[in-house]
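Try it yourself: sequence plus D-MYO-inositol-1-phosphate, in.
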Amino acid sequence: MEDSRVVEIAEKAKEWTLEAGARLNLSHQEKLNVEYKTSAADIVTQKDKEIEQFFIGNIKTTYPGHYVLGEEGLSDVLPTDTQNGVVWIIDPIDGTTNFVHQNLNYAISVAVYIEGEPSIGYIYDPIKKELFSAIKNQGAFLNDQPLSTLTSCGIEEAVICFNHLWLVPNEKVDYEKMQRLVSDVRGVRYLGSAALEMAYVACGRLDSSLDFRLSPWDIAAGLVILNEVGAEMTTLENQTINVYTKSSTIFSRPGIHQYILEYLS
Ligand code: IPD
Ligand code: CA
Ligand code: CA
Ligand code: CA
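Structure, out:
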């Protein structure tokens, strides 16, 4: 696809992402209907569905041939061959638990994959009014400020991010190794929005972010942004991350990625 066409699609994606953020900001006075999906820890509100529908409506009107993959499943069934065509991958609210409990620390995540390539990514925190963005090969930005290429750091200087599940007996990793890792790093944080955590690695607020099992809509935009700043990204098994396959994920600045992988293997 021609560069000018990619930029045109990116402009639309940006416009709709900012408008979706404004809609969420306006909704703060509304009563939220919280429904359980698979459990009390897996929730959805009417706002998640409304924002997803807002994107689908705009995309389908403007680009009838494009596919949409959203967390709440209101859109298309994807073609089996995702290497062709244009696919929008949308998480209308990443961090719904934070949205409901804190009204903070959540984001809208919008990505466009063109012929299989991670091409356009936006992660927007409507409370802080921070828009993280990238177009493939054109650098990454926080609002209008370009983000620098990530430099390496030592493990003793690193602030890393993961949830409590890594520190209790689990199927993926020896939690006792994880407990030792915690004592080697400078600090540990957990935000509760995988997309924002990726954005924070991209801008250097976090040095690494680890997750057991993320979905396409959690990571699609973050992959575009992290690619542009030279982040290292693999599964726990040191495999390449495939956006369409649920997998463990580690996103880090250079230097500590390999250290963490070796430490946990
Ligand atoms: C969740 C958040 C959370 C991550 C979960 C995701 P949601 O997304 O990104 O940080 O640990 O795995 O499902 O459901 O709030 O969009
Ligand atoms: Ca969810
Ligand atoms: Ca999510
Ligand atoms: Ca979501």
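One thing you can check immediately is this: The chain has seven helices and 14 strands.
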